[in-house]
Design a protein that fits this description.
The protein has 174 residues and is an alpha/beta fold. The protein is built from 6 helices and 9 strands; from the N terminus they run E-H-E-E-E-H-E-E-H-E-H-E-H-H-E.
Length: 174
């Protein structure tokens, strides 16, 4: 039986919009879909474990990875840096795995430049008020950064041109 290369799915949204819920539901529907584990400079939250949700690295380690072109994409988000390992993604796809990236908008744009065939999904929250409420209730991100430069209305309007499957979805799981 011939082994076909895998697929790359990019789920992009602002923090608190529902990326994790959507990715979890996708993996429950199809056991062949595997998540990508990103690197981050932030500390673990709650029950997060190194190598499961993220690889938690220091600023100097992250700098070294950027310098050595180890990331497929990387971004500053809410004061921390996040990056996706180029090698890990390329190896998994070459082995025929379907990989899903859970990243922000700027990372999705970087990935689409390198993987034109990636299936991109952009999620908008039901409303900006709901997004602020979710972030406040989580106690993880202050709502103020939501109004930062990457989340202005002009950027949201660019989404359909940048990502193939851009839709406003009211996705929310309890």
């Amino acid at each position: 039986m011939e082994n076909f290369p895998g697929n790359l799915f990019v789920v992009a949204a602002p923090s608190g919009a529902g990326k994790s819920s959507l990715v979890k539901a996708l993996m429950e529907l199809d056991a062949k879909v595997r998540p990508s584990v990103s690197h981050t400079t932030r500390a673990p939250r709650g029950q997060e474990k190194h190598g499961r949700e993220y690889y938690f690295v220091s600023e100097p380690e992250f700098d070294q990875m950027v310098t050595s072109n180890a990331f497929l994409e990387w971004a500053h988000v809410h004061g921390y840096r996040y990056g996706t390992s180029r090698k890990a993604i390329e190896e998994r796809i070459a082995q025929g795995a379907d990989v899903v990236l859970e990243i922000d908008f700027q990372g999705a744009v970087q990935v689409k430049k390198l993987f034109a065939n990636a299936v991109s999904i952009f999620i908008l929250p039901p409303s900006w008020e709901e997004l602020k409420s979710r972030l406040h209730n989580r106690g993880e991100d202050a709502p103020e950064p939501l109004l930062g430069p990457r989340l202005h209305a002009k950027d949201i309007q660019r989404v359909p041109q940048e990502l193939v499957h851009a839709e406003h979805t009211p996705h929310h799981r309890e």
